[in-house]
Design a protein that fits this description.
Helices cover 61% and strands 6% of the residues. The chain is of the alpha/beta class. Strands 2-1-3-5-4 form a 5-stranded mixed β-sheet, covered by helices on one side.
C-alpha cells in the first residue's frame, strides 16, 4: 500500500514538473507576436491607463486589470529589444498558467477520490494544447483560467464546507475586474448558494454587487458600446456561437482545445463531451449539488452563447476547462480504465505535437520586420495590408508605412494590385502574411524577396 502511494505521489509530482517545463519551453521559445497579440500590444503601448478601461482598438477585449498590470510592467521595465518586450508582456500569462497547476490539484481533491481519476485529471489539465498555448501568448486566457480555479475553490468552501472568510467576499467582488468570464462562475454559484443556504448569500453578494455596479459603469458598459457591434459581427461570421441548427459546432469548438485540425477537433470534441456527459449519471439526492457545481457554469455559458451573448471559441471557454476535466475524470461506466487511458493519450499526443509545431500562430513578424528595417533606406516605404497589426507592432518608424485599404485582404485580390499601381514612383517593401508573388501586378519590378512564413517583397515602380 505504501509503495502504491509512493508511485502515485511521484506520478503527480512528475506531471507537475513536466507541465511546468513544457510551459517554460513554450514561453522561452518566444515566437514573434501573431495578429491578436500584436493588436493587444499596440493598445498597451498607445493607450493611457484610463483608456484601457473604456475599450480597445482593433477588436480586442480583455479584463481591465490584466491590461493595467501589463502596461505597468511595460512602462516599468521598458525593454529596448523586441524579444525582451515580447517576453515581458507574456510573463503574466506564463506565470498564471504555471500557478494554475498546483491550484488545480488543490481544487480537484474533493471531487476525485480515487487515484486513477486524480492522475487522469492532472494529466489532461496539465497536458492540454490550449492551457499550454496561452502560457506563451500575450492574451488573458490563462490568467482568466487561474481566476476561475480560485473562484471555484472559494465557492466550494462556502457551499460544501460551510466556511466563510472575509477575503472570500473580496476575491468574488474583484474577480470581474481581472476576468470577464468570471461572471459565469459567480452567477452560477450564487444560484447554488441561494438554493442551499439563502440566508448566507448576503455576505458574499453585497460586496460583489457594489463592485459589479462600479465595474459595469466604469468599464463593462463603455467597452460594450465601443466593441460590441464589431465583435458580434466577427463571431457571427466566424461561427462562434452555439446554434441548434449546427449541433456539432459545440464538439468542434471544444475539440479545438486539443487540435487545430477541424476533423480531428470534431472527433476529439465529440468523444470528450460524451465522456463528460456520462459522468452526470447516476444523478441522485446525495450528489445532486456537486453535479450542479460542475455542470451549471457550463450550461449557463452555452445558454448565453445560444443567445449570441458569448462566443464559445476554445480560448474563450478555457475558464470552464477545470469543470470539464473533473467531469471527464469522473467517468465511472463500462471500460473505465480504457476510456480514461484513451483520454490521457489524446491529451498527451495533441499537446506535445502542437507545442512543438505551433504553426497556426507562427508568422515570424518580428524576424521579417527586422530584416526589412536592416535594409530599408530613408526614402523607401513599407506597404502593409489589412493584417498589418503583427508588423506594425514591431516597426520602429511608423511614418514610413503605407496601408492598403480594406479591399486588400490576405487573399490578395485585384483590388490590392490596383492600389499598388496607384502608388507614387519609388521603392517599397511589401510585407504580407502570405506570399503573393504570382499574383503581384506586372506594373512593378521585383528587386528582392524574403520568405519566412511571412513574406517581404522589395519592388519599385
Amino acid at each position: 500500500m505504501q509503495a502504491e502511494k509512493k508511485i502515485y505521489n511521484y506520478g503527480i509530482i512528475a506531471i507537475v514538473i513536466l507541465g511546468i517545463l513544457i510551459r517554460c519551453f513554450a514561453y522561452f521559445r518566444n515566437l514573434s507576436f501573431w495578429g491578436d497579440e500584436a493588436a493587444l500590444g499596440l493598445n498597451i503601448m498607445n493607450k493611457s491607463y484610463y483608456e484601457l478601461f473604456k475599450g480597445l482598438d482593433y477588436l480586442q477585449v480583455a479584463p481591465p486589470m490584466f491590461l493595467v498590470i501589463s502596461k505597468f510592467l511595460y512602462q516599468t521595465f521598458n525593454p529596448v529589444y523586441d524579444c525582451l518586450r515580447d517576453l515581458l508582456l507574456r510573463w503574466l500569462s506564463a506565470a498564471a498558467g504555471i500557478a494554475a497547476i498546483p491550484l488545480f490539484y488543490y481544487y480537484i481533491k474533493p471531487f476525485l477520490k480515487d487515484k486513477l481519476s486524480m492522475i487522469t485529471g492532472m494529466l489532461i489539465f496539465v497536458f492540454n494544447t490550449t492551457t499550454i498555448l496561452y502560457c506563451a501568448q500575450f492574451k488573458q486566457y490563462s490568467f482568466e483560467l487561474l481566476v476561475s480555479i480560485l473562484l471555484m475553490i472559494v465557492f466550494y468552501k462556502i457551499i460544501f464546507e460551510d466556511k466563510f472568510r472575509w477575503y472570500y467576499s473580496a476575491i468574488i467582488a474583484i474577480a470581474p475586474w481581472f476576468s470577464l468570464s468570471s461572471l459565469f462562475i459567480i452567477g452560477s454559484y450564487f444560484l447554488l448558494i441561494l438554493y442551499k443556504k439563502p440566508k448566507s448569500l448576503i455576505k458574499s453578494y453585497l460586496p460583489f454587487f457594489i463592485s459589479f455596479v462600479l465595474f459595469y459603469f466604469f468599464s463593462l458598459k463603455p467597452v460594450s458600446n465601443y466593441n460590441y457591434e464589431g465583435m458580434y459581427t466577427w463571431w457571427q461570421n466566424g461561427y462562434g456561437f452555439v446554434s441548434l441548427l449546427h449541433p456539432m459546432r459545440v464538439a468542434i469548438r471544444f475539440g479545438e482545445m486539443f487540435s487545430f485540425n477541424k476533423l480531428t477537433a470534431e472527433c476529439i470534441g465529440a468523444f470528450m463531451l460524451v465522456v463528460a456527459a456520462c459522468s452526470l449519471f447516476p444523478l441522485n439526492k446525495d450528489n445532486r449539488l456537486k453535479k450542479l457545481f460542475i455542470y451549471l457554469p457550463i450550461v449557463l455559458t452555452f445558454f448565453a452563447s445560444a443567445l449570441k451573448l458569448y462566443p464559445i471559441e476554445a480560448r474563450l471557454i478555457l475558464f470552464l476547462y477545470p469543470l470539464f476535466v473533473v467531469a471527464i475524470s469522473s467517468y465511472n461506466l463500462k471500460f473505465r480504465k480504457l476510456v480514461l487511458t484513451v483520454v490521457c493519450l489524446i491529451s498527451l499526443a495533441t499537446s506535445i505535437y502542437y507545442t512543438i509545431n505551433p504553426y497556426r500562430f507562427y508568422t515570424s513578424a518580428r524576424e521579417v520586420v527586422h530584416y526589412t528595417e536592416s535594409r530599408i533606406k530613408t526614402d523607401e516605404k513599407i506597404v502593409l495590408d489589412t493584417a498589418f497589426h503583427r508588423y506594425l507592432y514591431y516597426i520602429k518608424n511608423k511614418d514610413r508605412i503605407i496601408y492598403l485599404n480594406d479591399g486588400c485582404g490576405e487573399d490578395f485580390t485585384d483590388a490590392c494590385n490596383k492600389e499598388i499601381e496607384a502608388l507614387p514612383q519609388g521603392t517599397y517593401y511589401l510585407i504580407l502574411k502570405n506570399n503573393p508573388e504570382d499574383k503581384l501586378t506586372a506594373g512593378v519590378k521585383i528587386l528582392d524577396e524574403y520568405n519566412l512564413y511571412s513574406s517581404v517583397i522589395k519592388f519599385e515602380k
